[in-house]
Structures are given as C-alpha cells and as structure tokens.
Amino acid sequence: MTFKDFGFDERLLEGIEATGYETATPVQEQVIPHILAGKDIIASAQTGTGKTAAFLLPIVHKIISAPNHDHINALIIVPTRELAIQIAENLEGLSYFTPISSIAVYGGGSGGTFVQERQALSAGADIVICTPGRLIGHLAMGYVKLKQLDYLVLDEADRMLDMGFNEDIMKIISYLPADRQTLLFSATMPHKIRELARKILRQPVEVNISLSKPPERIKQEAFVIYDSQKPALIKHILQQKEFKSVIIFCSKKNNVKQLARELKKAGFSAEEIHSDLEQNVREQVLSAFINGRVKILVATDILSRGIHIDNIDLVINYDVPNDGEDYVHRIGRTARAENEGTAYTLINEKEQNKFAAIEKLLGHAVMKTPVPSGLGETPAYQPRTFKADNRRFSNKRNYKP
Ligand code: AMP
C-alpha cells in the first residue's frame, strides 16, 4: 500500500517521499485509516514497526486539512526525552512541506529552553511532544491552552506506567476536552494498560502488531558465568576484535557507572548513559558515540527502545533483560539497516531461569559460548524448566517467534 492510497495532502506526500518511505508498514496500514476516520485506538506495537509515522501522518493530514489551526491541536506524551526528540525530528522531516508547527517539551535543558517552550506553548504550536513532568510544570503556570485539543497520543504507554507517570498522565488529561481523539500505543498490554485505556479511550479500535523476531542476521551468543567474572569477560571480549561501536546494556544504573569506570580505567574508549545524567550531557555522549568518537557506550534500558543508531556491531547484555521484548529491543540495536551484528548475553546463576524464558519466547536456544579458561570455573547452565507460573511471559499473546 502506498501513502497516496490514504488520500494524504500533497504537501505531506512530498515530505513522506523526501523522508524515503515508499510503502506503508503493517502498523501504518492498519492504524492510519482508523485515525483518519476519527476512531480512538489502542495498539500494541513496538518501536521499529513504523508506529511513529502511523500516528504522525494522519494527525498532520487532519490538522492541515482543517480550516484553522491556531491552537494546540495534538499532544503526544512520551516516557523519555530521547523519544520526544526523536519523534520531533521524524515529524520535522515528514511535515517539512506543510505549515505545521511543533515543539518538543522535555525538560532537562537550560532556563532559556523553558522560555522557548513557554512561548511556543502560549502561541499554540500545532503539535506538542512532551514528557509528562515537564508539561505539568508548564500547565501549573496557566498559559498552556489545551481546551481546543483534538488529538491525544500516549506513546510507549506501558513504559510510562512502569516509570510511575500514571498520576501525571491523568492530571494532564484533566486539562483536556472530553471530546477528543485518543490514540494509545504500548509495546505490551498488561492489566494496568487496559485499565488506563478503559478510563481514557472511547470505543477504541484494537490493533495488534506482533513483535517481530530479531533479524536472523544478528549472531546471538550467551556466556554462563558468575557475576564477579562479568567485568573481566567484557574486557576480554572487547580486546578480541576492533569493534567500531558497541553498546553494553545493564539493568541497573550502578552497574552502568561501575562498568564504565572500569573500562575507562583499562584504557577503552567508553562512556555511560543513564537517567542520572543531565540532558545536555546525555546528548553530548550520544552524539560522540554516533560520530564514532566514543566506541563503547554503557547504558541502561533508556537506550534500548526507540533510539536509532546505525552501524552498531556489537550489543552486550551485561545482565539478562527482564523479558523477551526487552531482549529483542536491546539486541535490535545492532544489525540495523541490513548490517550484520552480534549480540552477547552474560547470564549469572540467578538469571538462568529468566534467560530460559526468553529462549522459549524466541522459539530456540541461544548458543552458549565457553568462557575463556583464564577466567576460572563457571557455573553450568541448568535453568529450571520454564513453567506457566511466570505470568509475565505466558501473557504475551502477541509474541510470535
Ligand atoms: P518507529 O517504529 O516509528 O520507531 O520506526 C522505525 C523506523 O522505521 C524509523 O527509522 C522510521 O523512520 C522508519 N519508517 C517508518 N515508516 C516507514 C516506512 N513506511 N517505510 C520505511 N521506513 C519507515
């Protein structure tokens, strides 16, 4: 299906062409006609499916087709600054030839940024992309007029709830007109998302896009190891080959900090990224990594979703991600744009059951590579056979390996 088939405005079609999209992705095919028809949507769709354009394109089309758009028409609430920036950039490209105005409101910047945001919010930018806390900061000051809002999008809603934004989201919604179109996108559909949907959506159309399998070209391996051996194994791996760019994911901020410190001390070109860092520092680190000035990025899951960095040749999971979806997101950072990539996962004794559950979701075992003998004895891989007692995994109906 091409974008012309949706009947989009010519100026929007020009932007789509300039961005390089030729045909619609499955989520776009399924979602766009409903959004154009004015329906509320609850969609389970991951990053990487083209979900951002799936909501941006019909919203832009509808706004520019309406007689006046001198107020905030659409509000897109997202969990992280990185995602806000990325959506804003995507929007800028797609809407380049249209008269749409937009602003990303995500905080963490200087006082000057706040003033800029205030101006754009007071003037009524057509589309506002925001993180919840920052928007509430502006709302409290009274100049943000949302009473004429037409579209509300919650992106990565499950993540927002995991990050404790439920109350903030409900507070923002209390400023919005009841008569609006609401679109909710979530990677997973736990009970609390259903609850939220029940409160804020009106007779929504439900769309399920299965999580795609990690691309075949990603070489996946795992090391069964004691926790104390993990830093030494990481250094060993990094010394084996000249990697251009490597991301190492850790679930905990403290592990990120400690590992980054150890790698730097050992002379590696490594930096860290996690939520304790100021926004401008995070951006600097990310841009140094993208430019190749920093070869190794140690990061929390803040970086596992939504961030598009091409040419990563190795992803290492310092610890086992919490579920199969996080695993697919993390390793999906490598082998983008048809490149080859490698993903290693380090599994300690406590993480074996979790990893076995991920393997079950993947539909195959991941090769266990022997740890170099210099690192000493390692545990055997003996996960308890996975049973349906772990509802986090058994509930993932939309996962099709
Ligand atoms: P998303 O799931 O929105 O994060 O999108 C994943 C990637 O796919 C982004 O780099 C988008 O720019 C790209 N993309 C989205 N829609 C299309 C399309 N129809 N054709 C080609 N690439 C697309």
Report on the architecture of this protein:
This protein has 2 domains: 3-208, Rossmann fold; 218-375, P-loop containing nucleotide triphosphate hydrolases (Rossmann fold, 3-Layer(aba) Sandwich). Residues 385-401 have low confidence and may be disordered. The chain is globular. The longest helix has 15 residues, at 51-65. It has a 7-stranded parallel sheet, sandwiched between helices. Strands 10-11-9-12-13-8-14 form a 7-stranded parallel sheet, with helices on both faces. The protein is built from 15 helices and 14 strands. Helix 3 crosses helix 4 (81-94). 39% of the residues lie in helices and 15% in strands. With 401 residues, the protein is an alpha/beta fold. Helix 12 (279-290) links the parallel strand 10 (270-273) and strand 11 (296-299). Bound molecules: adenosine monophosphate. Adenosine monophosphate is lined by residues 21, 24-25, 28, 47-53, 90, 306, 308.
Which tags fit this structure?
2 domains; seven-stranded parallel beta sheet; alpha/beta; 14 strands; Rossmann fold; 15 helices; binds adenosine monophosphate; disordered C terminus; 401 residues
Question: Short summary of the structure?
Answer:
With 401 residues, the protein is of the alpha/beta class.
User: What fraction of the residues are assigned to beta strands by DSSP?
Assistant: 15-25%
CATH domain fold name of the largest domain: Rossmann fold
Domains (count) = 2
CATH superfamily of the largest domain: P-loop containing nucleotide triphosphate hydrolases
Largest sheet: 7 strands, parallel
Rg is 22 Å
Helical segment tally? 15
Structural class based on helices, strands and sheet pairing: alpha/beta
Question: How many strand elements?
Answer: 14
Low-confidence stretches are: 385-401
The CATH architecture designation of the largest domain is 3-Layer(aba) Sandwich
Mean pLDDT rating: 88
Task: Identify the bound ligands.
Answer: adenosine monophosphate
- The strands making up the biggest β-sheet line up spatially as 3-4-2-5-6-1-7
Shape: globular
Determine the N-to-C terminus distance. Answer: 25 Å
> Order of SSEs, N→C?
HHEHEHEHEHEHHEHEEHEHEHEEHEHEH
Helix content: 25-40%
CATH class of the largest domain: Alpha Beta
